[in-house]
Structure formats: C-alpha cells, structure tokens
Amino acid sequence: MKQSHLFTKTRKEAPSDEVSKNAQLLIRAGYIHKEMAGVYSFLPLGLHVITNIATIIREEMNALGGVEIQMTTLQDREVWEKSGRWNDEIVDNWFKTKLKNGGEVGLGFTHEEPLTRIVSEHVNSYKDLPKYIYQIQTKFRNESRAKSGILRGREFLMKDLYSFCRDEAEHTAFYEKSKVAYRKIFDRVGLGEKTYLTFASGGTFCKYSHEFQTLTVSGEDTIHLCEKCHIAVNEEIIKEVVSCPECNGALSKTEKAVEVGNIFSLGTKYASALGLQFTDEQGVKKTPVMGSYGIGIGRVMGTIVEVFADEKGIVWPESVAPFRVHLVAIAGADGANVMGEAEKLYNGLSSRGVSVLFDDRDLRAGEKFADADLLGIPTRIVISEKTISGGKLEVKDRKTGVVEMHSEEDFFKKCLT
User: Residue 373's domain spans which residues?
Assistant: First the structure.
C-alpha cells in the first residue's frame, strides 16, 4: 500500500481525554478513532492488525476442531429469561432496546444461551457430540467505566468458542487442549513470555476458571506469580489459595496484569435451561456438559501496544503488524530517480509476497522517520540518493533500533527468511 493512499494522518499529540497509553498511541498513529468513551472505530491500519490477530486465533481454533459460525447481535429476550440472565439484577451490563412493534431485545454481550438453542435443533444422539463452535463477533457491554482505551470497551470484537461434550471426562480433555491452544495463540502474537495461565474463581460452575493474564503496569488486575512454574493466581481468590494449584510452589511475587483471554467450565446449567439433551448408547436422555472460551481481539491489540511501545511509538511483533516492511523514500535533489528506485523495490517486495507500506509522500525526512517510529512496523527500509549511490539499502529494526546496510539481494536472503 502506498502511504499517500491512506486518508489517515498521524498526530503529534494525543486527545486530552485519553489516559491509556494504548489509546493515545493508536489514535496518534491513525489506527483507531474514538467515537465516544469505550467505543472505537478501527481505521485501515488498525483493521490490518485485528485481522492478523483474528487469523491466528482462527487457525488455532480450527486446529482444535472448532467450527466457525456468525450469530446475531440482536438477542431474543425469551431465550435469556430461561437462564435468568435477562434480569438486570443478575447481569447489570446489558444494552437493551425497544422494538417499534412492541417487545424488547438485547445487544449480545455473550452467546451461551442463543447457541445452546441453535445446537438443540441439531443434536439428538451421542453420535452428534462433541461439538466445538466459535465465532468472531462484536459484543456490547454497558461498562460503568471505560478509561482504558481498547482494553475495556463498551463495543468490542471477541472470539467466543463453546464446547458441548457427552460427559465430564470428554469436557475436561477438551478443556486441557484449549489451554494449549491459547498458549500457542499468545506465543504467536508475541505475548507468550508475559502471559500467565491464571487461576480465578469458577463461580457456581466449578472450583476454578482460568484466565490468561499479560503482565503490564497498566493492568486492571493483580496476580500472584508462582516461583516454580509459569502459573499465577488472581488476587480475588488469593485468600483461598496458599500455594500454586499446579505445582504447590510459593506465590510470592505480585504483578499488575491485563486479562486477554479466559476459559470456563459451565457444567449443564445452560443446556438444562434451554432443554438441550441427547440420547446416550443405552437410549438414556442426558444433558451435555458445556464450556466457554473467550479472547478479546481488540484487547489483545491494546495489550501488545501497552507491553512493547517505547518513547517513540508503537512496536508491533511481526506476526500482527499491519505490514512487514515500511519503505521510506527520501527524494532529495534527484527526486525522480529516488522515487523510481523505491517504486522498483516496492514492486519487487510485493511480488515476493512481502506486505509493504510505501511512504511515497512529499515530506521532509524527519517527519517520515518520526511517523515510521510511531507506526511501529517491524522493518524500515530507506531509499535515498546516498543509498542508491552506495548500492545498498538502509534497514532499521524497529524493535532493537539497529540500522544495517544491505544489498537488495542480501536483504531478501537474510532479512525475509
């Protein structure tokens, strides 16, 4: 993509009403636009990033045996009344609206109930199970506070998967596989080392649920880290847990963290409420055991910014960056020649399947370099009269700041493998 084709522009200052680093940098860099507190539009560069994150998640969910669907945002009051969650005293963050012809509907904040109703029309026998069904969809939650940028929104993109199993043993086996899949996801988006499987309250369903918490000073949660393994315990249950539930190690270190994912055992509550049953091998009617598995995609994006950004701007891991290479042309006196050489390199990279943002704008070098640092694309290549005369490319690694000179051939061999 040529940068001159973008309608977005960078800003030197963040909006005065934004206090979170992720929102400040993402707005300044033109990745998102704030519509109101807790509600953000994703602009072209931001859409690239969340699409890359969603692709990684899809790949791992599909590898688990998940099947993707798309459910409705508008929610039938009746299905939620069956589980009791239409009541505002039970769930206090609904967005609800009146229909013109009478009645009331909600905007979906999660989808256990409607999916259970859908599954009840397609599952009859033990042969129809297990099933693992997921979606990537916009959710709506009427948060009382929304001051953390895209870490906590009133409208946000979420992957939610729901499992339907024949018994507790089958559910537990899938639950353990989902932990591994989540580890892979957070490794692939660059957060693996800083993300801890965290024991949290299981509520009415089980002793524990599991969160995936990423260490950052901007985190809303406090977690206690195990000295021996990559496990943590949420502050909310620390009085009940004296040592690591996994290895019995001491929980001595305390850190702030952001919850980027969670998994829950749901038991049979929703299946029972919605009348979902199947017939087992002996012809006996039974109720499936369910699980719920969520990842906030925008929250992952915001967490990456919080964790890796430096004083110059955003630093994207290569796997989620909007582009692999930021090609910057510095025209100088011989502008036509420089732009011509830059265009050749742009086409050459693109033909090799390398995603490139080509800064072809008529701006001073300092402005272009400042924008490149702010945007945070992993590799910056500078084409100028100096590099052309030397027969080299000036290549800068955004993460390390290291600048090296490479021939075009060496760059393709060494830097893009």
Answer: 325-415
